[in-house]
Amino acid sequence: MSWFPISTLVTRNAMQRPATRLYPFEQRTPYARTRGHVAFAIDNCDFCTVCAVKCPTRAIVASKKDRTWAIDHSLCILCENCIEGCREGCITLSDKPWPPMLAKDVLGFRQAFESPAV
Amino acid sequence: MTAHAWTLAFAFLILGPLLGALLAGLDRILTARMQSRRGPPLLQPIYDVLKLFEKDTLVVTSLQTLYLWGFLLFMAISGFILFLGGDLLLSLFALAVSGILLCLAAYATNSPYSNIGSSRELMLMMAYEPMLLIVPLGFFLVTGSFRVSDIIAGEPWQVLELGGILIGFLFILTIKLRKSPFDLSSSHHGHQELVKGLTTDFSGSDLALVEIGHWYENVILLGWLYLFFAPLGVAWALPISLILFFGEVLVDNTHARLKWAPTLRLSWWVTGLFGVTNLVLLSLFA
Amino acid sequence: MPLIALLILFPLCAGLAVLSTRDIEQRENLVRWLAYGLGGATLLLALLHFRTEPEFFTLGQGLTGALDNLFMLGGIAVSLYLLYACRQIKGREWYIPVLLLVQMGLMLFVELAPEHPVVARPFYLDSFSVLMALIVGVIGGLICIHAVRYMHDYHAHGHGAQEAKTTCPERRRRSFFFMLFVFLAAMFGIVFSNHLLWLFFFWEVTTLCSFWLIAYSGTDEAVRNGFRALGINLIGGVSFAGALVWLTHGPGLHTWELDQLVAAGSALALIPAVLIAVAGLTKSAQMPFSSWLLGAMVAPTPVSALLHSSTLVKAGVFLLVKLAPVFHNTYAGLLLSLIGGLTFLVTSLIAINQRSAKLVLAYSTIANLGLIVMCVGIGTAATLWAAILLIVFHAVAKALLFLAAGTTAHLIGGRDIEDMEGLVYRRPALAAAMLIGILGMFLAPFGMLLSKYATLQAFLTVEVLPLGGVLLAVIIVFGSAPTLFFWSKWMGKLVAVPRRPQPSELPLPRDEAIALFSLAALTTLACALFPLIDWLFIHPYTGSLIGAGLIPALDGHLPWETIATMSFMLAALFLLPILFWLRPPQFQASSGYLSGANVDGSASYRGAMGAEREVASRSYFLTDFIREGMLTRVGLLGSGCLLILMMLTGAIR
Amino acid sequence: MSLGEPFEDLELDQWVTTAVRHQSEGFRLVQMTGTARADHFEIMVSYDKDYRCVNYRTRIPRDHPELPSLSAIFPAAFTYENELKDLFGVVVPGLTLDYGGNFLRTKTKIAFSGEVVVKKGAATATKAGQEV
Amino acid sequence: MSNTIVPFGPQHPVLPEPIHLDLELDDERVVQALPSIGYVHRGLELLAERHDFTEMAQVAERICGICSFIHSQGYCQGIEQLLGIEAPPRAAYLRTVWAELSRIQSHLLWLGLAADAFGFESLFMQSWRIREAIVDIIEETTGGRVIFGTCKVGGIRKDLDADTVQRVRQRLRDIETGYDELATIFRRDPTVKQRTVGVGLLSGEDAYALGAVGPVIRASGIVRDTRKLGYAAYGELDWEPIVEQAGDCYARCEVRLREISQSFDLIAQCLDRLPSGEIEVSAKGKRPKGEAMFRLEQPRGEVCYYMQANGQKNLERFRVRTPTFANIAPLVHMLKGSELADVPVIVLTIDPCVSCNER
Amino acid sequence: MSFITKSPWILHYAATSCNGCDIELLACLTPHYDVERFGIVNTGNPKHADIFLVTGSVNEESRKVVENLYAQMPDPKAVVAIGACALSGGIFRDAYNVYGGIDKVIPVDVYVPGCAARPEAIIDGVVQALAILDERAKERKRQRKMVAA
Ligand code: SF4
Ligand code: SF4
Ligand code: SF4
Ligand code: SF4
Ligand code: SF4
Ligand code: SF4
Ligand code: SF4
Ligand code: SF4
């Protein structure tokens, strides 16, 4: 009866509720540490560019002169270096993944902010 | 040839694919559930085929389409004969022709995976043909006729007399339905050493033809299975054959794929052990 | 009667005429016309005598006597010629002259018997023999036509050029066609002789011809195989002669007439029938005796087609079919069937291993003859019906295949099935002919299916030993599977699209085209019109046997819808390509799937080491799984035992 | 965890003999690799036995980068040597299975053979800004 | 006589990763199998010129997404050696926990793919179902599902609180029960045995001579597990390397199956003995100098990091020799004479990691 | 609504990915995510596929392969690039054998960011691609009608 264990397993599976998470319809609660995407709040940023320097993929571009900060999510590898580097706490980690994009327009993802934040 | 038989036969031609698609859909849901997945909707096979007709068709050679039409045609003929109550042996031969035409379609593309797929399919045919041929022979010994209508009108206990042959048939049913452990030549699931085996180089409407052919085949095989129990009456025969048919899903999910040589050896052994022994016993005691 | 005489004499004279020509072109034209004439004559015979009751012919006393003496002397001459040829034997072939001498001795013992039976009606004609004559005349004629051009090429290039030129002088080339015609004459003789001694003479002539034709190229291999054929056929000859001795000197039946032998039934005629059956088995290359046919494949292709597919081997089964009523319902008959069955099974399996097209054809020939022998051993009306249909289908389809294989070999320069890749695209006409041949050989609704259908039905209702029938049915069941495999893989090669553009090739010679297309047409017609053949030739024959009470009345015959459905399938198989051709789908072409490593839409891919490699596909030969040597040994041993058993049961009855 | 595994320098002509010696002593080839220097390539090989690893280094000149193959002694060396060939442009006579420069086909050919320019610091933000 | 020639890969459904084999077949017997790689070669060793030595940890982690953690661990420990610092004990233990979690997830992933390679779909699904539970633990503790991102030079980036430790321990026990059932199935199923027993034989001598590593060499009866060097917490835990004798595909599967159980045990030991304290020592201001060869055991076997630095921010030479690279020669050896249907099975039982292999 | 949205078959190719995104993609097929709910089947064969999912960036070898696979997919089809590598080269963008994102060789329709992209994000990406495919299927139908007319 060597096929017995697998048969039991398979029939049990068929009897039980599937393990499937019905993703788009039901969403599970993310863990506290889940790395979804890098979120940015301009309020406290003083454009020190530490984050840009620490970013291994150069996803972040910040300019002290123009007082701009931009991130290209197509480059970000979620390493959290920028978050750890930012002394102002402007960069945080969101537990939601950045949504899929229809165009990888690099400039389009660079969001420039005026100095008194919106 | 009663009017009833003709209706049934034409109903097969038109509704057969639908029924076959439902069987396939159920199969997929059951498989999914056994793997603790949710699985596709019941009509998924139909969506798939309709989608395939929407797609462009890429061919390696235009002749492959010809063979595929032949495959479908002979599949339909085989079922037509069966449901008309005609000659079982003839239905079987039509089935074999259709199988060969499918192999030819794959051979025609002359690309490595298709070729290996069809060579393996031929080996599988070699594995199951003897048993498949023994089934009508068994019926003949019991009822004295190859005709389906006579077999249906047989004695209710003939399924007991044909017990060994039934076992053999269930065995090769696994091969015919392309189920693990015998899904060597192509499988309904992805991920295997032959890519998609036989069907690797079919696309779009060509692939849809193959799928429709398989739906027909599902119904035909269910029909064959039904024949064993037919004298019991529909109320018994249909549920029993459906349960046995879906028993194949369990088999599919509890086995790894075998290689061709063990498959061939095993199926010939089973044919000899169950099929032939049953025939011999029948001819000795009948 | 005059027609029969004509049929026997005409090819003989034709042969002599060919022998006397000097000019090659003239000779070739002559052969063409003679072949047409021969075919025409047999057609005429068929037209005059279809649905005929058996007719027997008497000759004048004087003529019979003269012929008696002529054939006796002829027989001795044949034996002497063969003895002379034996100067080339080597080593273990010493048994050949010994057999020759034994056979000669036995024959003299028969012929010089003090009171031998009188043969009143030395020739006969029934619808079966008419059918056989038709096969011999038409197919033999077509093969001769094919041979005209083929032999031309054979000597012009390839091994024919190197070997035949040195070893075979012009005279030998002239004799080639002479021998073909002599052979056809002898075949007619076999088909129409009721006089067993005369029949035996013709039998010997075919043996001689086959020996000569096989050894034709004169290479050592050819000569050795010629001797092998000779030796094995002589075993049959000795056995035949033994039967004659029994009929002359033995107790009980005392006759030299075939019809009386058959009519005597199993009680009286079993022993001589068994002995003659052994001769039939040797000629039709059944299992212990099959090796000669394989060796004979060294002969030029038309010879293979003629001797080993459509005619010579048919002489063996012809005789067996004739004797079938004797075997009906006997253990010897069952054993005969089993020999056929074993041969069928073993050779079908071995055929999978073969690469060379000719060898596949050879094995499948043996397998098919095995199927016929299976039918004969049971000897009911249905199995005889099946056996005769098998003979017809096999003759046309196999001749077609042999000739097509030969032509292909000449045109594309390779005899392997593997070399025929993409023939449908490279040589559509040739491929179509070959496909028709293959379909005719095994596929529903074509030829073999019908016969298998009938045999299966007959086997399951056989009554000698109920198990025997099942056993035979199981043999068919298991033997059909490999058949399906090797034919399908061959077809697969033919239909595969070629991987690169093919160089322009030689044109198809006219003679070969005529032969091929006529045969293709014949195959198709035979399949489509087999009920007609049945009605014209087979039914009258089995009917007369039933009428004479020799075999039981017709049991379950094919129901009409079965035939109708088959015809419908056949029509579908033909209509589909035509429809397709009229309205081809417009699909975009793309290269095959090569794991994404394709190079520019070709069949090459970028492989390891940066090399561009072309993919290759070879069909499966399963050499690890089906071992030819082992199977052959099992087959030889098994069939040898069965043969001995058959002779014993024959004798014990 | 520092194992204090030794790195020893070898002359080029001892390259093969050392390999033979280690092979006969039951060592196993662990890896081979190279480092590009200004005027030579440093080729390194590691053998181990019972978890002990020994490393050897030799130098081959840039203008004549030839390294005798070890693949006849350690069959597994063929992968490393092909790699050296493709990435460093080293010529390896005696390679048993020679991919002829097609082991690793790269966008930049023989990528490792260039001058070793260690950039001061990581890429700077301003530079990155210009690029984006 | 021509043979069938099949390009196996780079895109092939049985291989999740691109690798190519030129297969030459006689019927279905492999006459020759020539591998061709380079489909994943990125050239990341040279990235050391661009990223400083701390950032390189993130590059190293992405050498492969399956043993991602162990790659970063190996890199960091190598650098620590060059810097002359040592990660605090708590970091060492947590590194071990994550490494073993990563081993379990890798082996389960492999188990699924192997099952898939011989057409056992439900087994594939089942093992990935269990794997998903492990991945959940990984996600909860690190925030990533495949790229952990928790290892850094000098220690680790994230700590686990007592609650989490408790929860993880509990969940692992449940998972282990489910896993045991799966392992039983795998071990006992006759069709699995049909496909693996006696297939792809590699004798101990061959394995050693060809330089096989990891489960491949251990399945051939040779004890070699780099964890025995005692890096991280391994020196302080109770365990013995797992060895099988047969050297066939089945033995290689068996080694991995047992290793999964062993890893469950190792994690439990670590969590039980988890020391308290700091999780990192600062590497601030230090610059790596000298050279080091650091070896550790990945799910697929021994990986070697060679680092050379001369006191600057960037390494002078960074080199990774991954286990799959060492297993290629044995693979080619085993493929010869196998059957086409065995090819995926043999390939998968060395558990190839093309990504790390080609870097 | 065309049927292609109900039965999108996918082809996955790991260009030069680190496996991270690949295993997340595979995870989508397994019980916890089970994309067969949407009729998605992993075909492993370009000729059957509707959506091409590429992970990893393009390098010297994989350039041709990606092109070939794309060419062997029958229309209508869509391409989804998964993970930072496939989008832009990610952390390997500066490596000497990396050309950059997938869009360097074939047109990409949907970009799924992440390193590794989560199964949820991949599912979202495929759903986005369905809308595009729907459009293309309709367009294709129109074209065919025009040819037939
Ligand atoms: S590092 Fe902190 S303090 Fe310095 S500039 Fe950036 S945000 Fe401001
Ligand atoms: S705060 Fe940081 S980034 Fe800004 S200038 Fe100082 S060191 Fe540079
Ligand atoms: S998480 Fe890493 S990659 Fe992403 S922006 Fe921050 S530093 Fe750059
Ligand atoms: S590190 Fe923080 S404060 Fe500085 S630029 Fe980046 S986000 Fe702004
Ligand atoms: S083609 Fe072959 S058989 Fe024919 S003559 Fe030439 S060499 Fe002889
Ligand atoms: S073997 Fe390499 S590429 Fe494969 S999963 Fe492991 S680390 Fe990744
Ligand atoms: S072998 Fe290498 S690439 Fe594979 S998982 Fe391990 S570290 Fe990663
Ligand atoms: S995006 Fe990240 S996880 Fe995905 S392949 Fe690239 S490095 Fe790996």
Automatic annotation (TrEMBL), chain B:
The chain crosses the membrane at residues 6-26, 66-84, 90-110, 122-144, 156-175, 224-246, 266-285. The keyword DNA-binding does not apply. It comes from the Bacteria. It is a multi-pass membrane protein. It is found in: Membrane. GO terms for cellular component: plasma membrane. It holds the Pfam family NADHdh. Keywords: Lyase, Membrane, Transmembrane, Transmembrane helix. The keyword Metal-binding does not apply. One of its GO terms (molecular function) is lyase activity. PANTHER family: FORMATE HYDROGENLYASE SUBUNIT 4 (PTHR43359), FORMATE HYDROGENLYASE SUBUNIT 4-RELATED (PTHR43359:SF1). This is Formate hydrogenlyase subunit 4. It comes from Thiobaca trueperi.
UniProtKB/TrEMBL annotation, chain C:
Keywords: Membrane, Transmembrane, Transmembrane helix. Its main location: membrane. The keyword Transmembrane helix applies. It is a multi-pass membrane protein. InterPro entries: CPA3_Na-H_Antiporter_A, ND/Mrp_TM, Proton_antipo_N. Residues 123-153 form the NADH-Ubiquinone oxidoreductase (complex I) chain 5 N-terminal domain. It comes from the Bacteria. GO terms for cellular component: endomembrane system; membrane. Residues 193-465 form the NADH:quinone oxidoreductase/Mrp antiporter transmembrane domain. It holds the Pfam family Proton_antipo_N. Coiled coil: none annotated. It is found in: Endomembrane system; Membrane. Signal peptide: none annotated. This is Ech hydrogenase subunit A.
TrEMBL record, chain D:
It comes from the Bacteria. Pfam families: Complex1_30kDa. InterPro entries: NADH_quin_OxRdtase_su_C/D-like (IPR037232), NADH_UbQ_OxRdtase_30kDa_su (IPR001268). Residues 18-94 form the NADH:ubiquinone oxidoreductase 30kDa subunit domain. GO terms for molecular function: NADH dehydrogenase (ubiquinone) activity. This is Respiratory-subunit NADH dehydrogenase subunit. It comes from Thiobaca trueperi. The lineage of its organism: Bacteria, Pseudomonadati, Pseudomonadota, Gammaproteobacteria, Chromatiales.
Automatic annotation (TrEMBL), chain F:
The keyword Iron applies. Signal peptide: none annotated. Residues 18-128 form the NADH:ubiquinone oxidoreductase-like 20kDa subunit domain. It comes from the Bacteria. Keywords: 4Fe-4S, Iron, Iron-sulfur, Metal-binding. GO terms for molecular function: 4 iron, 4 sulfur cluster binding; metal ion binding. InterPro entries: Complex_I_20kDa-like, NADH_UbQ_OxRdtase-like_20kDa. Its cofactor is [4Fe-4S] cluster. Belongs to the complex I 20 kDa subunit family. This is Ech hydrogenase subunit C.
